[in-house]
Amino acid sequence: MIYLPVEISLPFLWENEVFKKSDWNSINLFVGPNGSGKTIIAGELFKILQKEGYKPDFLLAERLITETDSSPDGKKHRDVFRLLKADSLLKEKVETVISAMFKKSIYLDEKNGHLIPMVKDIIRNSEYNLRKGECHGLKEIITLLTTIYDSSSKSIILDEPELHLHPQFQFFLINEIRKLAGNPLKEPGKKLFFIITHSPYFIDLRSPEDFRGIVLCHTGGIPTYCESPDLDDFRVMKRFLPRFNTHHKQFFFSDNPVFVEGYTDQQVFTILIDSLSLSFDYPGSCIIDVGGKDELGVFYTICRMLGTGARIITDLDSLFKGKLRDVLCADSRPRLWLNKEGKELYPEILLGRKKITLDSLIQQLEGLLIQIGRAVSKINSRNHEVQDFVQRIGFFYSSRGKVEDLDTFKTVLSQGLELLGDKLVNLLPEKSRKLVPLCIRLKSLILRAGEEARVYILPRGCIEHYYTQTRVEYMPISGKDKLFHQERDYLISQSPKTLREEYPELIGIIQKALD
User: Fold this and answer.
1) What is the 3-state secondary structure (H, E, C) of 171-189?
2) Which regions form coiled coils (predicted)?
């Protein structure tokens, strides 16, 4: 880590709050949505770097701001082509890269006191003026390479270096930056980097320590960042990084990221957001699928460490097992709500309890479900729906060992109690029958408490239970892909009015998550 005390106060953005950070990586990333003040923060950081002897360069929209050259607008700019002319070694290094990657070389022609950068196309054996004959991409690449290879600076701020660059060159550039990054005050020739970016390709996280170099900017408060992770969090990040893909990294650039388990959830919620124009009500929102409920727990942990709130929509079985349940129960927000507002809303469950935790309530719910499940497995009914459900419950008892350990068993039982209602409950023995209202009420309480931590559990089960084109009753569900495509075709063909009428529960859930 590099010790550099930074304090930045921007009252028009953060009122009386002050951004403070003293420990920096050799490569630091400022990320966040548009309008979160990243470039303004970078301007203040530039002044601090000057004061602390880090001799900074600031590359802002193809203009290089330095400590040495003044311009009429009061800022200091430097022409990279004059840098190349003055430093033959620097020019040779830049030319080598350009030649290898694009089969083009650069030379500088001086006419009437003006320096004209010329490009020679090696393949076509042609020459032309770079400023007139080249697109922004090559100009940006030359400017970036000249800036990072220039030995006269000790630190560099790059503002959106991804502009005009293909992803492959973004990968190349961050790898070149890694080679040059270090503590310039202790390692001559190394540089301290600060990169403002909206590109996931620059978020190249290879170890848990790299998270400490991320500064997450927000439209509604001071930037946040990851302090030293504890051992458990460190292990979570280490296991997670190899699976951290470009799609996942969207959450670094959104004020309203919502994480879901799979691509079907992501597609359904995204279609609803787009079709109902909810993106105007909740700008900067995005739905990110992560590949399972345990992965949701990992993203929950990552967001907590970075100081930003994760919003999660998940299946009902997440309540009974997995990483997400663990981190949700460890969160203080549900506990605080349960011990205050919860007691007022659910006095029949919570009144008189001294210490209320989400974990203890879930355990109580599991106990009730197991008791009711034993009674359900013994029901004999001529009602087709009831008998089908009883057979499902009986299957768990006959072939799955200890039902107490099966999250699917508890989920299916919970679904059946609400789906069948009195048709099932009236067939239970009196002792079990009395437990059903408490069980349903307790489930409602638990789901409401989870919302305090921005975790929204689908009460019916999973996304398929909200489909309108097919009837899906219990988990697990077979043929999910076929069901999804049928539902998706219907979703994209309907008017906003129809969608509001047919998917009110899903719309309510996504609105709560984005609010």
Assistant:
1) HHHHHHHHHHECCCCCCCC
2) none
